[in-house]
Amino acid sequence: MTPKQKADFAVIKFVAGLVLIVMRKFWFTSAAVMLGIFVLFWLYGGCLALLLTLIAFSGIVYQISDQLVYWPNFPPDSRVLVQPPSSMGLPAENLYLYARDGTKLHAVFVKQASGAVKSAPTFIYFHGNAGNLGHRLSNVYEMYRWLHVNLLLLEYRGYGLSEGSPSEEGLYLDAQAAINYLKTRSDIDQNKIIIFGRSLGGAVAVDCVSRSEISSRVAAVILENTFTSIPDMAKVLFSNVKFLAKLPEWCHKNKYLSKYKMCRVVVPTLFLSGQADSLVPPRMMMELYHCCASPAKRLMQFTQGSHNETWKCPGYYQVLLHFLDELFQRTTQPPVLLPGVVCFSEPQIL
């Protein structure tokens, strides 16, 4: 053993002896300290294990959130069978568009008779969750017949015949591709483009018109039974599972923070709210209405309107028609409301 090792060993021996003397003299205090150290270690270990478990669970929820939010395979044949507009007697063009990231998207352009295409307003129709554009044709047919509009129907990535997988950022790119496509058409009035979004499609529509480069290119937006955000919806859907309901915003992969984006929406806006909606609480539509920065906005409430079938309520298409008449200055008369329809409007109407 070298002299240095001997010196180190002597120091260790001295310290150990000193510790033993102290422990013998203050055995109770020493035992309490040792027990405290053990309990503290156990508690910290348990807390750490719990923290790691929560982080892991949050990560799992984050990764599978796409499956929780999007339902492109419901009904089961939605990805292989898309009913064409021609089955409803609607004249239409079958299209394939490309998003900025290269994703191939299926779309359909339903147009008025050749003499009316140019003068008619054009709707960009963003559908709700689940299914494909074929499941919306009954509603589209009534819009075509009542409102005399052209309609561009888009299937988001991962829905219907479109390629890819759905994601929040992906759906925003899809919507932008649809808007950019309409700008290439010389047979429509570029000053009469209106974005329509229902449920999930409403969140996509809000994102579009909250962007200045897009809002300057559209005449108005129509939102039906949409939500304030995905975290807010989680609180509603998982109200009985407190842990899931209280997950912080950053745990959600898909957020669709419409309530924060509404302060940037300045185009004329029509809110269509079904008061019998059992999925998205109608109060969310009221909140979006109050958050909207547009000086020309209106909230129409349909007493019997459910989440997916507000469009079947009496007065629905009359409300839309009057909105278009006001928007394009075809009339200044107030809408004639049927029973079961309630109107909220800003002092400065459209």
UniProtKB/TrEMBL annotation:
This is Protein ABHD13. Residues 121-250 form the AB hydrolase-1 domain. The chain crosses the membrane at residues 7-27, 33-57. One of its GO terms (molecular function) is palmitoyl-(protein) hydrolase activity. GO terms for cellular component: membrane. It comes from the Eukaryota. It comes from Penaeus vannamei. It holds the Pfam family Abhydrolase_1. Keywords: Hydrolase, Membrane, Transmembrane, Transmembrane helix.
